[in-house]
Amino acid sequence: MAEPGRGGPGRGGPVRSRRNRLAAAVTTLVLLAPLAACGSGDDGGIPTVNLYYTTEQNIQKVVDDCNAKASGRYRIAYRVLPRAADDQRVQLVRRLAAEDPGMDVLGLDVTWTQEFASAGWVLEWTGERRAEVERGTLAGPLETARYEGRLYAAPKNTNVQLLWYRSDLVPQPPQTWDEMIRMAQDLRGRGQPYRVITMGAQYEGLVVLYNTLVASAGGRILSDDGSKAVFDEGAVRALEVLRNFATAGVTTSSFSNTIEDQARLDFQSGAGAFQLNWPFVYPAMQEADPELAKKVKWARFPGVDAGTPSKVTIGGFNLAVSRYSKHPEESFAAASCLRDAEHQKFSAINDGVPPTIESVYAEPEMAEAYPMRDTILEELKDPATRPRSPAYQNISTVLSATLSPPSAIDPEKTADRMREATQDALDSKGVLP
Amino acid sequence: MRTETETETGTAAERSGRTGAVPAPRRGRTGRAGRAPLSEGKRAERRLGWLLCAPAALVMVAVTAYPILYSVWLSLQRFDLKFPDEREFVGLANYVTVLTNDYWWTAFGVTMLITVVTVAVELVLGMGLAVVMHRTIVGRGLVRTSALIPYGIVTVVAAFSWRYAWTPGTGYLATLFGEGAPLTERASALAIIMLAEIWKTTPFMALLLMAGLALVPEDLLKAASMDGATAWQRFTRVMLPVMKPAILVALLFRTLDAFRVFDNIFVLTAGANETSSVSMLAYNNLMRGLNLGIGSTMSVLIFLTVAVIAFVFVKLFGTAAPGSTDEGGRR
Fold first, then answer.
1. Residues in chain A within 8 Å Cβ distance of B86
2. Nearest CB to B81: which of A97, A257, A430?
3. B113-285 sits in which CATH class?
4. What residue in B sits closest to A430 (Cα-Cα)?
5. Per-residue pLDDT of chain B (331 residues; tens, 9 = 90+)
6. Residue A393: its chain B contacts at CB < 8 A?
7. Domain at A219, CATH number
8. Which of B82, B274, B276 shows the shortest C-beta gap to A115?
9. Could you tell me the residue range of the domain that residue A181 belongs to?
10. Residue A15: inside a domain
11. Same domain for A87 and A227?
12. Label partner for A289 (CA 20 to 30 A): which of A37, A225, A348, B43?
């Protein structure tokens, strides 16, 4: 701004003209602003649906296909969210808290759906739209999209970990953790590769492992209505299994620091007889070491008790419609298109993300891309979901902090600590580290 | 530099007040108890002073007082964006939660450690750099510019280069102290954070101290050396006392800044392995946890701590501190 009162008579002219120009510029901007807003929202009358989704290599093709099929009803614009889960969530959350109307369809990790629903940030799916999503969708993934009995998202893809084992060392895959640990100790005694490789660092992956163990042992972390931290006998039993595994001398030395890709590399280096990991490890192994890949087979994740099959934690992404969207109708239609059977098959084959619609697994093209599809489907039909609570982020943070390092677990005491910290998180009293 | 300006303004006002009061003290019109009655001119001057301050004061209220009060109000509630229906007034419960929490005290300790170590090291290095910059005769501009480069780089950008430098595989510093990832262990990670902070803000310290050095009269130094004072004695007995106000301003600014350290930690470790500062903790609870109640409580506590630090500085160093109105302010 020009300095007031300083200009002498000689300087009055230029100052005023400068001010006038400034005023003119501001007026022009003010007049143009609504036009600009219209321009970004409606492209020649076609509503733009902004899709906020994480990086997925070929999703633009799915978007293009949906745009072609919409024949002018809407046009989806793909906005790329960051790679890291935390960064994705922070961006979505900050903009939703500010009631940003620029986001329409949101790609939510399965563990965020309840949080966004509880905060009132995403719209409920009702009527015919809901029926369409529920038709043919596997029960486990569908459950991750529900909150308090209502449907708040459409499952786009799911994911589940398998047991990968060296068939040249282990003729029959183990059914339980105890059996797997014994097999590994035998192999070590015979001087063969023996390690059991999986994720044990202090992060979400450790919570996924623990959640699988709790569900496989028939335990519960939260009460059914999600308001109480339970951590029953099964949860304590799961802690025992985890501690026994971490102290049996069959893990890698860096177990408490291992995340997905590290586990994959450790196994590819030939040190392991078993690996518990997501399906992405298989194509990666075929590329990096085809000889090793030929010896590797897969099986259902080991259970806790003999005779009771495991229940494995599912991951994946759901699509939800923002409450602040200016075009909710079109957004629901766009989300439905992005996750329909045809596009799920395309994404499964081209981007390696397992479908949530059961019939897609039977498609002939799936056999080549997913040789392990039957095992995946078997696990998906009897899955474990992570605690479906709006406070899941906080619960996960305190769980991974309490579980790490797994070798230091003292089952009863650790369960007590987790119960207390989880209850605090549910009551908004928890402090995040 | 606002504080310095304030001091000067205060001094000028006092002076003019005194001169204004002498010629025409009007009887019967007393000001507040114990104060000399105000003259017409003096009152008009005050009124003008208030009017001139008003726009700035209003802006300050809008951009600082309102958010501060709003934070205090939030900190007294259970207010969690995840549970919008369960918003309620809880009094001081959030303060009890935070002040009895281990994470908070760990972060507080880390922050204090970083503050004390970095400010102390920066003071020493900054003083050395200031003397060099002050005394350089050849290429003075070049020396000053190159010394200021770290301060000119955006902290986040600098922090990323430090991070890559210390990451095994991408960095040239990672293997300096044997195998391992220095950013994944607490002690080494904290050392790296402090190093990045010191590297970044020593030039700022030097700049402030150089302003103080310019205040030291050359004659005084010559006279001292004539009296047989050694270089060290000239530094401690002549330069330091004259520079005291400048040193205090520099220390105060840097301490308050250092206590709010955030960006370096955010980039270098993201607070892993107990390297969170209090600001990181507040961010995590506000932005990641969506817990406005607990997060605001932390913000208020940080604000109070900063206020206490400023108060201690003013009290401890008494007269020479910026903002104090007695003798020292008139130097």
1. 428
2. A97
3. mainly alpha
4. B97
5. 344 434 444 444 444 444 433 444 444 444 445 566 778 888 999 999 999 999 999 998 889 999 999 999 999 999 988 888 889 999 999 999 999 998 899 999 999 999 999 999 999 999 999 998 888 878 888 888 888 899 999 999 999 999 888 887 777 887 777 777 788 788 889 999 999 999 999 999 999 999 899 888 989 999 999 999 898 999 888 888 888 888 988 999 899 999 999 999 999 888 877 889 999 999 989 988 889 999 999 999 999 999 999 888 888 776 555 555 444 444 4
6. 288-289
7. 3.40.190.10
8. B82
9. 162-312+391-426
10. no
11. no
12. A348
